[in-house]
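Final report, Chapter 2: Outcomes

The project's central promise was a pipeline that accepts a single protein chain and returns its three-dimensional structure in a standardized token representation, suitable for archiving and comparison. That pipeline is now operational. To close this chapter, we reproduce one record exactly as it appears in the project archive, with the input sequence first and the structure output second.
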Amino acid sequence: MDHCQLDVQRDVSADEWQQRVDLAACYRLVARYGWDDLIFTHISARVPGPEHHFLINPYGLMFDEITASSLVKVDLHGRKVFDSPFDINPAGFVIHSAIHAAREDAICVLHVHSVNGVAVSAQQDGLLPLSQHSMAVLSSLAYHDYEGVALDDDEKPRLVRDLGDKRFLMLRNHGLLTVGRSVAEAFVGMYFFETSCMMQVRAQAGSGPLRRIPQHIVDDAPCQFATVTRGAGGNLAWPALLRKLEAGDPGYRR
């Protein structure tokens, strides 16, 4: 355990430290699955407690460098509330602060510029009901039109309006976003979102007619997935993902 880890872990609550560990793991997993975009995307997690503080990545670090100690804690105005030598991504702050402020259930907000996700976000019809994976997404999917790099607070109300109470947001010509009641839920949701986009792009590349899943099956998907995951949602797969990470990349816990 290095000195930096000792300082941060000593000065925050046990609940915050656990949130830091889970969020750092999420960053490492996003890198491992190839959804990162150098240093330019972001994942945030609300700090447990009454204050509206959240953790976000130190701007300038690759995702596979991020540790529990290096995460930056800020308030909804972007002010650091725990000493850190790092800045934060201003576009990341606009998107994440808007959603954390508007949604009490938005414990984790995960945003990526994955190749397949951006490809589908550029298609007029967006995500199509072509795969079983897409069933996990379509029943709670919203869209937000591209307004340029998200630097302007003026965009926040429209972003919040378009997201509504949904868990998945396709940012047109931009990328994918998931909202989770835990880091685990946001990550596993993104796995299904990105995989659905990859399957769609590959199916379209086959150039033949595409079979769409009927709407009544799409409508029943939430109940089916709740049964498959035994009501645990993304939390069912999370321990296994952490074991996979621990075996080859345990440094995220520092």
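Archive annotation: The chain has a mean pLDDT of 90.
This record, like all others produced under the grant, will remain available to the consortium after the project formally closes.
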